Amino acid sequence: MLELRSSGFGEDEIRLYLNELRQNSQAATARALKEHFIFERIADDEKIEDAPEDHEVEIQLIARQSGETPRRVRARLEKSGRMDVLRNHIIERKVVDLILANAQFKDAAYRPERVDAEALDRSAGGKSEGDKSEGDIPEALP
């Protein structure tokens, strides 16, 4: 949530994203943990650390995006015990910045994946759109 807020996403967009994450929580959790540990390893190897001014910058950014005062944002983070989440966000952002600074990019043509599927003009209930008949699905019996 902190990352999305600091990136300028609105509350509705954040809720939508979080609902998607909940639906795919196991895969998302595994991916996020792998990413976190890889970033932590890079941070350790490259001696990347957070500084108090980094925390102030992030809190200012979150405050601007959420329409709250920096003091209120800091109090909320401290009260909820999420300052370590903020620290992880800062470290991960610094690692991503380091990776991007050293990455070499090569343009490649986008080729969409071919999907072997076809659309049906039936709803989940078995009727075509606009079809007023009972359709060919038998009635469910007790």
Write the layout of secondary structure elements.
Layout: H1 2-6, H2 11-23, H3 25-46, H4 52-66, H5 70-79, H6 83-102
Short description:
The chain is built from six helices and no strands. With 142 residues, it is mainly α. The model has no long low-confidence stretch (mean pLDDT 84).
Number of helices: 6
Low-pLDDT sequence parts: none
Number of strands: 0
The SSE order reads HHHHHH
Structural class: mainly alpha
Radius of gyration computed on alpha carbons:
23 Å
Number of structural domains: 1
**What level of helicity do the residues show?**
55-70%
Main β-sheet: number of strands, strand sense, barrel status?
A: none
Bulk shape: extended
Give the N-terminus to C-terminus distance in angstroms: 46 Å
| Strand residue percentage | under 5%
pLDDT averaged over residues: 84
Give a structural overview.
- Helix 3 packs across helix 6 (83-102) and helix 4 packs across helix 5 (70-79).
- 60% of the residues lie in helices and 0% in strands.
- It is extended, with a radius of gyration of 23 Å.
- The chain starts with a helix and ends in a 40-residue tail after the last helix.
- The model has no long low-confidence stretch (mean pLDDT 84).
- With 142 residues, the protein is mainly alpha-helical.
- The protein contains 6 helices and no strands.
